[in-house]
Amino acid sequence: MVEVEIKHEEINNNLGFPFKIFYFKAQSLSKVIIPHWHKSTEILFVIEGKIRVKVKNKDTILYENQFIIINPNIVHSTQSLTKNYVICLQLPLNFLQNLTNGSFMEKFRLT
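The structure assignment produced for this chain is given below.
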């Protein structure tokens, strides 16, 4: 078994919004985002193509018009299975806590 170093990703908001949104387009199957975690909820939405998302050692394949929500502090990674176009929205934990009057982790956290 190969041991993989898990990285903490620091999320910096962009464009003055209290969240980060960006996209990535993979043109080759070598596009891999290594296992990492952060204090943001992440939503990945596949515009075209398909990707493999690994969350807590469980693989999920996302196709066009599908999305996944990944909770804060959860180790995850992605791998391109075809050429793809994916939108990523990262919502910081403190932003979600403010929106929910401090109850996000208790009431809205997905398992």
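Interim note for the steering committee: The radius of gyration is 14 Å. The mean pLDDT is 86.
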